[in-house]
Write a structure and sequence with these properties.
The structure holds two protein chains of two kinds. Chain A is of the alpha/beta class. Chain A is built from 21 helices and 14 strands. In chain A, helix 16 (521-535) runs parallel beside helix 17. The longest helix of chain A is centred in the middle third of the chain and has 53 residues, at 260-312. The relative contact order of chain A is 0.08. Chain B has two domains: 2-322, ABC transporter type 1, transmembrane domain (ABC transporter transmembrane region fold); 340-590, Rossmann fold, CATH 3.40.50.300. In chain B, the strands form three sheets. Chain B has a six-stranded mixed sheet. Chain B has a four-stranded antiparallel sheet with strand order 2-1-4-5, with no helix packed on it. In chain B, helix 2 (10-49) packs antiparallel against helix 3 (55-104), helix 6 (124-154) packs antiparallel against helix 10 and helix 7 (159-206) runs antiparallel to helix 9. The longest helix of chain B is centred in the middle third of the chain and has 53 residues, at 217-269. The chains are: A alpha/beta, B alpha/beta. Chains A and B meet through helix 2, helix 3, helix 5, helix 6 and helix 7 of A and helix 2, helix 3, helix 5, helix 6 and helix 7 of B.
């Protein structure tokens, strides 16, 4: 019985309930056999749940009939209050009575066992259903991620996508079987009750059914309130979470500015709101049960009243009345059950909606593959021809850019932070598609190659040093298509100056990298350099070390990069003047635009942005003066 | 969890008493109800025998029944109202307690818990305690009352009829124990696999570029599929165990009622139950009703029992925070500051060690900073340069030695005073949701627009602020996400300037600025904030060329203090840094 109520669930209301509901139904189509089997066994269980009381009633009936016969046979007169006096001393059920009772008993036991088995099968099937759904959703989501343009993830946080894979899928797998089960089971029970009651007495059935709209209406009103406060509760919880996150992570600043009191006022407001909404939503969701019970009691009295008269008139037996009472006084329970999980159904659909929205995102453009370049044969001549590009339609970022890069050349990309240096990387790697113009590699238009073929041609070493959980060697050989010997891996690591570091780790090349072991960002960068060496792509995209790395490591990274760049066409996002000065071509970027290009000396002569940027470090002083 | 109850206010206990009374009456009415219902059935039977119209009887008894039912519903309403009220109020108080405790924490305590964990403790953990409280206050009170009342009612009627009840309840309890034994380890494994699935998915997302660059989509998807399959399989297993056990609850209850009816029949037949068979039938029916209620009350207890461990863990996590004493305790009043010492900061033989760490981060640091000086701290990663300046606003306390601000040991100054003296610009620019104004006037809520604009202009931020339509009232989203790194950094600098402090500390606060902005910002600061002491931690040597004093740190040791020229001549570590950043050829170029 896992707790149903999880406080951390996020958005609870779907924007397009109907649409998302339909999509979910379509999605569940391949799993229809689970649904059908579940449905059949639901109905079977319900039949038993419903027949049970009437069979138990038979036992009571047998006894009360015997009592009636016996009392008429052993009537000895009236007492002072004119009540019949009966001699009960020899009362016993006859063998015939016992046969009837035993028949019912055997039947009941068989039914209960069957009911248990059906119940097991039902839970079994709904378990399969929800797990299969979760599995498929997760699989589809991860595949979708890999088919979605990078742009989507540049615009949306990872956390957002991740929470769809985890929280939303969890919500669905947790709630789906529960929702299907509850709804199907309770509707069947309701129908079954009505059928059974009709079999006993239509008059009494009417009384019971008359209470249904009353109960339905009351519950609708309560649930509506409850959901309103529940939604408000979730909203305030989100706000409070945001507030706390901000305060806790910026506590130093708040203290430095002595602003605790100001933020505490804000906190108190959220906190009080949360308590109030929590109180109301909790109260309303619990209160549904006493109200249901009260309505049921009303029905009970009504049925007794009318039923009593009917029994009195001999039109119905006492046993029938007893069965009737059981059905009638339970008729509103299924409605309450469904009402109670209606919040869960909403959450379920909201989660499904979030998943479907992501699954419906625009995918990578269809490829038009006409050429394939063998990475081993590629020379590394790159040509940009009238390239135009924009992230958004309203602002063109690269306007008609043309440049020719010869095999083995080193191209430095420079510019202030946020200038859009990664844009160029994005275009070269075809993470983004250019709007017009062409990029050629060895004379072949990259647009006529497959994306993966283009990407194969470039090795990448970025500041964002991505490594995954796995051994160091697995990380190093990641992306390598052909097998490689351990010796060759070691050779590459030596060239990348990271061999000694790896050797110093416990486990060496077999050490598992995860979040806990502290590998410094500098060492990580060296590892990614080694990785690029091992893959051995003919061209390179590099991001130089940041200032966050200590001096010695920075030197190592530089040496390793120099080693890697030998004989390879390289695009370097450069931070160091020495790199920039030695490159064959400098692309100067600002505000997402390539504003100047040329060699170091050419650009200095131009006395434009680059010259200013270069000189700003020394503020016009000559270098001796600066020293 | 006991501590949660200990934190109850006295009026909560009064309300709790109210809950107990209300629930007692609710249970009382609930238990009378089956009696009353049976009375109606007996009334019908008797009426049939004596050939009297039962309508009157039923109406009378029905009226009583309705009254009882109404009592029950009113009591339950009241109890629910009180229980949810207490629980939400306790939740509210706990959140406030945690929040206040965290606000008194120093960096040491925050690092100990981690921010993420503190956030969970303030919200999710409190929610789960609140959830169990509602349950405890209602079902936890009701179930024992119901069970005891029910048991006492059926006690002595017939041991034969009692047997199925005891057997049923024991089977129920055994089931719970079995579930715990079998399912708990599976759940633990599932949790690990859930974490692993998340990890692989996150790796795929964060490594999107690399994965595509190395054309490795397939292997990554296979890896995910692998954990996905494992997770699905384990979930299936756990679910299947539940599938076997859960229907048993219904089964046991049905069999229990059946047995009561069946055994009851033979007892009635033997004339053992009640004085006569009519009474016998009534007893039997009443008995079944009580049996159901006893069974249910045990079910409720089990539900609490299942949910309890999680909440108890949450409660423990909450009180860990509340009971943690902040390592930095403020004095009640300030020691007097002498005017001639104003603007000075002095480190005397300062050692610093992180709590629980074996080695010191700083050893024997001695630096004297006079009023109006510009002092820079420089060194490679791990040199301790940021730690040194973190001591000034008392984010941490020195482990040995003394740190004097305005001639007074920081430990003898209240936080308010320290913060009015020292302005601080953090390494990681952080803004708070609100407006630009609410961020900038953090240190001085009454700062005028002129003061704010002056600070903005010093911080080189006027230009982009004036381009915003709402100006100072422009919305800042959480963490300042709607600003670029450079913009955020400039706003943080302006924020420190609004307070007009004697001393300004920049903890590597220029890193997101390009050289040009960095340059003009420093020029503006130096020209217009004469008399203000500036303390700068920097990575770029170019940033600190004109400092009055440059303090070179290496692995926590103070290596040298001097000007750029002096250090370039005599300090090897400084030379190395200078060469690597400006590069030798650069230093010698344009000769």
């Amino acid at each position: 019985m896992p707790p149903i109520n999880k406080s951390s669930r996020t958005s609870i209301k779907a924007n397009d309930f109907k649409g998302s509901f339909k999509k979910l139904v379509v999605f569940l189509k391949p799993l229809y056999k689970y649904l059908i089997v579940g449905l059949i066994f639901s109905v079977l269980s319900v039949v038993i749940i419903i027949i049970g009381p009437s069979k138990i009633g038979i036992i009571t009936d047998v006894i009360s009939k015997r009592i009636q016969t016996y009392s008429s046979e052993h009537f000895i007169g009236f007492d002072a209050e004119f009540k019949p006096l009966i001699d009960w001393s020899t009362f016993a059920l006859t063998a015939g009575d016992w046969k009837q009772i035993n028949d019912v008993a055997i039947f009941l036991v068989i039914m209960y066992v069957a009911s248990y088995i059906f119940g097991v099968i039902r839970s079994f099937v709904s378990n399969q259903l929800s797990q299969a759904t979760a599995y498929r959703f997760r699989k589809m989501l991860i595949e979708k991620i890999n088919r979605t343009p990078i742009k989507y993830f540049d615009d949306n946080s990872y956390g957002d996508t991740l929470s769809r894979i985890t929280n939303d899928v969890d919500n669905i797998s947790g709630l789906l079987s529960q929702a299907v089960d509850t709804v199907v089971l309770n509707i069947s029970i309701l129908i079954g009750y009505v059928i059974m009651m009709l079999g006993i007495s239509w008059e009494l059935t009417l009384i019971a059914i008359a209470s249904v709209p009353l109960a339905g209406l009351t519950m609708a009103i309560i649930m509506k309130r409850s959901q309103k406060y529940f939604a408000a509760n979730q909203r305030v919880l989100g706000e409070l979470n945001g507030h706390i996150e901000e305060i806790y992570s910026g506590l130093n600043i708040i203290k430095v500015f002595d602003a605790q009191e100001r933020f505490e006022t804000q906190f108190n407001k959220f906190n009080t709101d949360l308590a109030n909404n929590g109180f109301k939503s909790n109260f309303f969701s619990i209160v549904i049960w006493p109200i249901t019970n009260f309505i049921n009691n009303l029905v009970y009295i009504g049925v007794c009243l009318l039923g009593g008269v009917l029994v009195f008139k001999g039109r119905r037996t006492l046993g029938e009345l007893q069965s009737m009472i059981i059905y009638a006084s339970n008729i509103n329970r299924p409605i309450a059950q469904v009402a109670q999980i209606s919040t869960n159904i909403q959450m379920l659909i909201a989660s499904a909606e979030r998943i479907f929205i992501f699954l419906g995102e625009k995918e990578l453009e269809k490829e038009n593959v006409q050429f394939e370049l063998d990475p081993h044969q590629v020379q590394g001549n790159v040509k940009f021809e009238h390239v135009k590009f924009s992230y958004n339609e309203d602002r063109e970022i690269i306007k008609d850019f043309s440049v020719e890069v010869k095999s083995g050349q080193k191209i430095a990309i420079v510019g202030p932070t946020g200038a859009g240096k990664t844009t160029l990387v994005n275009l070269l790697m075809r993470f983004y598609e250019i709007n017009s113009g062409h990029i050629y590699v060895d004379g072949v238009d990259t647009h006529l190659m497959s994306r993966s073929n283009v990407q194969q041609l470039f090795g990448m070493v970025l500041q964002d040093t991505w490594l995954f959980k796995g051994t160091i060697e697995e990380n190093l050989t990641f992306g390598r298509k052909t097998p490689i010997s351990h010796e060759d891996v070691v050779r590459a690591c030596k060239a990348a100056h990271v061999h000694h570091f790896i050797k110093s780790l416990s486990g060496g090349y077999k050490m598992i990298i995860d979040e806990e072991n502290q590998i410094s960002s500098g060492q990580k960068q060296l590892l990614t350099i080694a990785r690029a060496m091992i893959v051995g792509s003919p061209m390179l995209i590099l991001d130089e070390a940041t200032s966050n790395v200590d001096t010695r490591t920075e030197q190592l990274i530089q040496d390793a990069m120099d080693e890697l760049m030998k004989n390879r066409t390289s695009f370097v996002i450069a931070h160091r003047l020495s790199t920039i000065r030695n490159s064959d071509l400098i692309l100067v970027m600002n505000n997402g635009d390539i504003i100047e290009s040329g060699t170091h000396n050419e650009l200095l002569d131009k006395n434009g942005f680059y010259a200013k940027l270069y000189n700003s470090q020394f503020e016009g002083k000559s270098l001796e003066e600066a020293i | 969890m006991l501590k949660v109850f200990a934190s109850f206010k006295y009026w909560m206990w009064l309300l709790f008493l109210g809950i107990v009374v209300l629930i007692y009456f609710q249970v009382d009415s609930d238990l009378k109800l089956p009696d009353q219902m049976q009375k109606i059935v007996i009334a019908i039977m008797e009426a049939i025998q004596s050939q009297k119209d039962p309508t009157q009887m039923i109406l009378r008894e029905g009226g009583t029944m309705l009254l009882i039912s109404l009592t029950s519903i009113v009591c339950m309403f009241g109890a629910t109202l009180l229980a949810t009220f207490i629980a939400t109020q306790v939740g509210k108080n706990l959140r406030l307690k945690v929040y206040k405790s965290v606000n008194n924490f120093s960096l040491a305590e925050i690092n100990k818990f981690s921010t993420a964990s503190l956030i969970t403790r303030t919200t999710n953990d409190v929610q789960s305690v609140q959830f169990i409280l509602v349950m405890l206050l209602r079902m936890g009170v009701m179930s024992p009352i119901m069970a005891i009342r029910g048991l006492s009612k059926i006690n002595g009627i017939s041991w034969q009829l009692s047997t199925p009840v005891f057997v049923g309840v024991s089977v129920l309890l055994t089931m719970v124990i079995i579930i715990f034994i079998f399912i708990m380890p599976v759940f633990k494994k599932i949790q690990t696999l859930v974490d692993e699935t998340n990890l692989v998915a996150r790796e795929n997302l964060t490594g999107l570029r690399v994965i595509r660059a190395y054309d490795a989509v397939k292997p990554v998807e296979e890896k995910f599929d692998n954990v996905n399959k494992k997770l699905t399989k384990l979930n299936l297993n756990a679910g299947n165990i539940f599938a076997f056990v859960m229907p048993l609850v219904d089964f046991v209850m049905q069999i229990m009622i059946f047995l009561i009816t069946y055994i009851g029949a033979s007892l009635i037949s033997g004339n053992v139950l009640g004085d006569n068979p009519i009474e016998g039938i009534a007893y039997q029916a009443t008995f079944a009703q009580y049996a159901i209620r006893i069974f249910m009350s045990f079910m409720f207890l089990i539900m609490i029992f299942i949910n309890f461990p999680k909440a108890a863990v949450s409660a423990k996590r909450i009180f860990q925070v509340v009971e943690t004493k902040p390592s930095i305790i403020q004095p009640l009043v300030d020691e007097e500051i002498l005017n001639e010492k104003r603007g000075t900061i002095e480190f005397i033989n300062v050692d610093f060690k992180y709590p629980d760490a074996e080695e010191s981060v700083l050893h024997n640091i001695n630096v004297k900073i006079s009023k109006g000086e510009i002092v820079a701290f420089i060194g490679s990663t791990g040199s301790g340069k940021s730690t040194v300046i973190n001591l000034i606003p008392r984010f941490f306390d020195v482990s040995a030695g003394q740190l004097l601000i305005d001639g007074v040991d920081v430990r003898n100054l209240t936080a308010k005073t320290i913060h009015s003296i020292v302005g601080f610009v953090p390494q990681k620019a952080s803004l708070f949701s609100g407006t630009i104004r609410s961020n900038l006037n953090l240190s001085n809520e009454n700062a005028s627009d002129e003061e704010i604009y002056e600070a903005l202009s010093l911080a080189q931020a006027t230009e982009f602020i004036s381009s915003l339509p709402e100006g100072l009232d422009y919305h800042v989203s959480q963490g300042g996400k709607n600003f670029s790194g450079g913009q955020k950094q400039r706003l943080c600098i302006a924020r420190a300037l609004v307070g007009n402090p004697e001393t300004l500390i920049f903890d590597d606060s220029f890193s997101a600025l390009d050289y040009k902005t960095d340059r003009s910002l420093r020029n503006a600061l130096m020209n217009r904030k004469k008399g203000t002491t500036l303390i700068i931690v920097a990575q770029r040597i170019a940033t600190i060329l004109e400092a009055d004093k440059i303090v070179v740190l290496d692995k926590g040791d103070l290596i040298d203090i001097g000007t750029h020229q002096e250090l370039l001549k005599r300090c090897q570590i400084y030379q190395e840094m200078a060469f690597s950043q400006l590069s030798k050829e650069e230093l010698n170029a344009t000769n």
